[in-house]
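Why run this: before we spend reagent on co-expression, it is cheaper to look at a predicted model of the complex and decide which construct boundaries make sense. The entries below are exactly what would go into the expression plan.
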Amino acid sequence: MNNKINHSLSIAKPDSVAISTKQKIALITGVIGLFILALALLNVNFPNQGFFLTLALGLISIGTIVYSRDAYLTKLEGIKNDGVWFKSISSRGIWGWLVGIILTTFYIILYFFPKYLGLGTNGGENTGLIALFDPLSKLLSGRPASQWFVYGTLYTVAILVFGYKFILKYRHNRYQQIRTISVMFFQLGFAFLIPEFMYVMNNDLPYYDLKSIWPLNYYIFDEWSVKGFLSNGNIGLALILFGVLSIFVITPILTYKFGKRWYCSWVCGCGGLAETAGDPFRQLSSKKLSAWKLERWLIHTVLVFSVVMTTGMIYTYLGYDKNNFWLTRDLFIGLVITFLTIIFLGVMIFKRQELGKDAKYGAIGFFVVIALLLVMHLTGSTDQIFYIKSSALRSAYGLYIGSIFSGVIGTGFYPILGSRAWCRFGCPMAAILGFQQRLFSKFRITTNGGQCISCGNCSNSCEMGIDVRAYAQKGENIVRSSCVGCGICSAVCPRGVLKLENDHMKGRINPTEILLGNDVDLMDLVNRK
Amino acid sequence: MEEHIVIIGNGISGVTTARHIRKMSNKKITIVSAETDYFFSRTALMYVYMGHMKFEHTQPYENWFWEKNNIELKKGYVEEIDVKSKTLHFAKGDTLPYDKLVIATGSKPNKFGWPGQDLNGVMGMYHKQDLENLEKYAPNNQTCKRAVIVGGGLIGIELAEMLNSRNIPVTFLVRESSFWNGVLPDGESEMINRHIRNHHIDLRLETNLKEIVSNDQGKVKSVIIQETGEEIICDVVGLTAGVTPNIDFVKNSEIETGRGVKVNRYLETNIPNVYAIGDCAEQINPIGQRRPIEAVWYTGRMMGETVAQTICNNRIEYKPGHWFNSAKFMDIEYQTYGWVHGDKGKPEYELQFHWKHKNDTICITVAYHKGTNQFLGINTFGIRMRHETFDRWLTEERDVDYIMNHLAEANFDPEFYRHYEDEILKTFNKQLQTA
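The model came back. Tokens follow.
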């Protein structure tokens, strides 16, 4: 009898997760929309593409909207996580794996075989799915669609409709609502519409999503990109300068004031998708200590790769003679090394004790980068660094990090690894912001005295795999590089223990052994140590 | 040879004790439990049934934690404590010697001798086994067409929320005239009544259980109401009328017991080297306004923090600071700091100011001293407050005007939330003028 009980616990499929008739109709509506896209993918040539595109996207949107309204507006405001671990799609069940496989396949085709989406080759007309998007692309920028336009449109629609769903789900929580409106705005405006309009105004400018900052935007300092900007007069110069300022000035200031959340869960497109369409999968991220260890190695390796690769790329198209261009190879490599050294020394001098054991790894990482840059400088030729073509290095980065890691694994594996696998394990931008957040930011998640009951809702819902509870139950504030400040841990906490705050740097990290509420003398005695 | 510390019970009290002893010493530590292999958060069991989490997520430490910290775990049911030979005797016949013993066995649900209280389908909501039972008898609303909950406390309302998440109709029998009004002032208690009913739960106030009726297979068929004799057909009965210390196995030892294991301020029992902490400990002399038995997560943890010191040769008194607690009633969060009494047990010196938002889900009650105006405590519903701030204000013995004028400093709601301090202060000032 005992076995049977345990059995029922592990495979529980309560009927409560069954959906209402209205939700079923909404689901069918959405699936019909997707079906039109699938038909287009199979090269069914629709007579009136504009109409069918509108129909497809309209049905998907209406389906999602009606479904969400019935799911959330029929209930009182509050946390809506009932049955998350029972539903097949959100608990790595059959549906989860199926969706994962479909998404992954889509990404592989998108990145590596766009012709199967119907991309016209050698100047030929688009067919299939991409042709279906031609009318919208022509409307916006006058040119036929590309696979990236199709992807961008679907991506934007996903953030908008699932953003709406998310706002309904958290309709009692203004932080969540405003944050979601922000990611919807930046996706629609900055990632989707503005680049199209910029193209209309000046079609020589390279595609530039203003909010996509190096090193997440790993191609902005490529030769073709920089030349593209510079050959376009002041506006181009302004844009490339903005790109430089973004990472070296704007980002550090905002991260100091607000933590990395200003970017990762308010602005960024990758974060935007994770927070909206990816929300049902947030609980799937691993909270194990081993996953944290892997995360720190992986993400910092990607950062090193990206810094060295970008430096190398710029290096190869710079010259030796300062009469041609003031920024010569010698000067550039010197600047990079100086900059990295200043940061390294600054951290080691002022933040040594906060780093603890990690200081050693930080130092190793720093010297590896410097060594790599010097080797590059000594072996570099016009198109070779480390005796390999620099373009090969750049392509490798684009392929393994830009495409496979961020797209195929990052998004395709949502239903398996959770919605932030890329942000957590791979994004070099997140690594930089996180490094600053950990050491030099006013942001923290404050733990409310002794109120934690170790229930685990916070850890469970952390998409970045932070074991929030481990801190909260010690009465310790959460100051972690990886925290993107989504605020869901605070929202789901049943005892009001967690609050995202920007406050003084002092006392931000406050490990305690005896929690507030106990004997004050005991607290003094033990916590003083 | 290091001293052997044996802790019976792997709940928050026992585990906190073990962790703190380990921090201070190399003593041999064994935690005994009959319930589960590993420590889990009891308060999170409800979320497993609701599908917010899986059972493994309720475990605050990964399974390697215990071995890494050299804390031995033993699964077994202690049947007898032989304090002379300092030995535990287990139900399976094996034994375990100890040098110091900590009893931290928590509580068990109250049963008041109702006819039918041991039928299949009748359960408390306390142990992991209760959850498994519920999963068996109330997996969905086909198997369980209606559930009846008996007892209107914190566990009762949690059980109602759990069943509600699977669309199982619930009848909620509450003995009092309003939900939990032995603790909550009327304004708050009545707001929670309405919130419960808004969730389509059949809340029956001033209603007692007479008996639970069996079907011919020894399973629940219905309950009979004491007052009206009405029969309510149901498949599950949840008994949530409070808890009692889980100490039956102590009673035939020489360790002194009352309702719980009797302890002094040092959490020591009448037997040297035997301690009791958490829900199962009963203070011989209650501390301040606290009850002799405090079945609360936080007090269990604090006793664990304290007794670990004593065991590690720093004998100190259990001296908890200002009272605090929290809970969540369906969608409404509740926090309390200091003492605010329900209308029944209210001391004559306690005055209260009550403010309620018009949406009927947010309210606060501030208690202060009639003579001195000293701030005594606050209850908040739907507004989060900062523990540290109120703890400081209580220590500083601020008066109620100070509190009302500085309420915003204590606000702990997420960013961008609407603030109500101005409205609260206006209402407060207006009431004072008319009073």
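Chain B touches chain A through 69 residues (CB under 8 Å). The first strand of chain B starts at residue 4 and ends at 8. Bring this page to Monday's planning discussion.
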